[in-house]
Description:
Two copies of one chain form a homodimer.
Chain A: E1 5-10, H1 14-24, E2 28-34, E3 38-40, H2 45-49, E4 59-61, H3 62-65, E5 72-76, E6 79-83, E7 88-91, E8 94-97, E9 100-103, E10 107-109, H4 115-120, H5 127-146, H6 153-160, E11 161-165, H7 169-188, E12 198-202, H8 214-226, E13 230-232, E14 237-240, E15 244-247, E16 252-254, E17 257-260, E18 264-266, E19 283-284, E20 297-299, E21 304-305, H9 319-337, E22 355-358, E23 364-370, E24 375-380, H10 381-399, H11 403-415
Parallel strand pairs in A: 1-2, 1-9, 2-5, 9-20, 11-12, 11-17, 12-13, 19-21
Antiparallel strand pairs in A: 3-4, 6-7, 7-8, 10-18, 14-15, 15-16, 22-23, 23-24
Helix pairs in contact in A: 1-9, 5-6, 10-11
Amino acid sequence: MADQKHVVIVGAGFGGVRLAKELAKENVRITLVDRHNYHLFQPLLYQVSTAVLSAGEIAYPTREFFKNYKNVEFFLGKATGVDQERRVLMTNHGEIAYDYLVLAAGATTNFFGNESVARNSYAMKTLQEAMTLRSHIIHEFERASKKTSPSLTEERRRHLNFVIVGGGATGIEMAGALMELIQIFKKEFHSINFDEVHVTLLEAMGSVLPMVPPDLQQYTIDVLRKKGVDVRLNTAVTEYDGNDLKLNNGEVVPTKTVIWAAGVRAQDFIKDCGSKVDRAGRIIVEENLLVPGSDCVFAIGDCANFQHGGLERPLPTVAPVATQEAMQVKENIMALIAGKTPDQLGKFVYKDLGAMATIGKGEAVMNGPMPLLGFTMKAKGFFAWFAWMFVHLIRLAGKYSDFTVSVKWIWNFFFGTRVSRIILSKME
Amino acid sequence: MADQKHVVIVGAGFGGVRLAKELAKENVRITLVDRHNYHLFQPLLYQVSTAVLSAGEIAYPTREFFKNYKNVEFFLGKATGVDQERRVLMTNHGEIAYDYLVLAAGATTNFFGNESVARNSYAMKTLQEAMTLRSHIIHEFERASKKTSPSLTEERRRHLNFVIVGGGATGIEMAGALMELIQIFKKEFHSINFDEVHVTLLEAMGSVLPMVPPDLQQYTIDVLRKKGVDVRLNTAVTEYDGNDLKLNNGEVVPTKTVIWAAGVRAQDFIKDCGSKVDRAGRIIVEENLLVPGSDCVFAIGDCANFQHGGLERPLPTVAPVATQEAMQVKENIMALIAGKTPDQLGKFVYKDLGAMATIGKGEAVMNGPMPLLGFTMKAKGFFAWFAWMFVHLIRLAGKYSDFTVSVKWIWNFFFGTRVSRIILSKME
Lengths: 428, 428
């Protein structure tokens, strides 16, 4: 239909897919652009890194969501910038003209300009990165198993030292899951002395998990330490050459594995979209989620900086923010199409869903209002873990229209052994 | 124990793993060498290529099999040769001395010396190859979906032309599974005209599936043609530059995808093991599976050429041959340790388990004695498919000691949608 408006959405993450699904029901034409052909359930990426889940279990073919919507076209490509004047999105496969554009491009790893760390450590933001990390961790045990001679002790220990940088949810969850993977390896690597295996979690601030209260922070640290993780607070990384990690206290940790979970920033091209960005490269959006000065370009999710309505700091880079913003943008786009002006659009208000993080199987912390559970609470231990499971299962299973896949996934989550422990990297 | 004999096994395929499992119960020390850290259920590799199964579902961590056997050590490494005089196996991680050596190194793709084909076509013998092929097939549809303009018709058709070379079980199964994948794509690629999608199966001989009788061969061809596969017999490939496939009848097929399933040969290092090899690089073994002239080196499975007891041709490169040979070698090694001489060893006799191949879901052919089913038969259609399923499920589920994994796998096989349709290759 010639009079259909064309909405272009960049990014098939939580925000982009939700928005496309909502708009698909309307009389508009939608092009969803992503550099991958799958939607990724990012909160569980650490489970791919630690061989709990396989890649296919948290990555869903994006086209599958829209098979019944002929007005949605998926475009596999990498956005490279926006020309707001000509109203075109630039990609590595040419330009795409839009009537309305929504930037929902997510985030990438922030190494805060430390090039030696960026070059030599393992990031955890993409599926490929998670799989590379998984292969690497398993490979380190294989390498150590061959270096049994006492003369190789230093080299062997370097293989068996694992350092995680960042005490946010990702770092905490990674540390817990890694300790569990090591328990499985204990049974299988007969020639390794597991007293030599060492997992360290470094946090530059005075505590972990900034989004939960101090008692839950301390609880998290206690649980990790009981599991054998060497948690070090107020400790930052200064340099890493792939062999020796230098800390700000002068210490040097010999290790082949530095896992970087210390920060995120927007994708590079966001700064080339013609709008002002913050220090993390995110677009500072208006209250109606429009990009300042535009009447047709919106930004949502991890690539947007939203701080209105008395917020002390910008909204966090979590899925509920992206999906709620998507709903608001859908309303606002339909309002613009109906003839409203930008100043007449609805303002976004975030409904806080609370924060939660697992610390391995059976242990978690949660805090804040829990609309999905129906009450406000603070919890820890097994109950919190169970609630975490529940929320994540509901969300993930909901992605899969096919019932059998949901069941399979739930089954796997509860009972699954780690069958994904395969090294896919090239042989050395 | 100092008096334990050291058995080194090269290859953790069907033969190698079976042998290691059997020997693990004896008073010997075993080192199992493989260049991958997983055992691969190769007969279902084509299901990874066509996104039915994910990699982790047919690849099992080898160490897991032996976690309760401290006398089995796994060694991740690539065998490079054997010095029979010094009794050492050479690997890319140093030498391993043996008392007994068993070569069970499997097979690799045979391009019969055609370098242009080897360089530009897709092989299907390793997990990595299967995943690369899967990503490529999906990517070709993504590429075609962007080239909708009439001026790009030639280019678009090249993306949508898929050629499979080889009418053996692998080629047939790949063709059937690919047609099913295309049915799924029909719903998702709204901008592709599926009349332009074309799957061709080339076979140099006068029929497909040489191991079944002529009526089943014809049935297989009929079923494939009904599914839309362009089956061409007596047609061989002469050259392929990655864009145009040249056939021996002078025809040129424009295609970006040539899947090579036309032959196998032994790994290269087998010829450097100090024994005579056949044209496919396989060691011509004695009746007791010893390598000629040796009293401690055996060869089994796809890297061995066994032709004794009145066989018209060497035993086929299938799993039952490898596992049965493994059982014989286990007996023979224990006999040698007990003081017997090579001429006193048991001779191998193959119990034919028949042949079967699927032609997509619900269609298969089978022929020969079926000890597992208890009778001799020839069958086709749904019944044959069901029998194929049964046999493969029993075998695969049997690999997994963990019950939940077996159930999950069976569930997936019967009901699974294709969730593994993700492109993992680098963006172009």
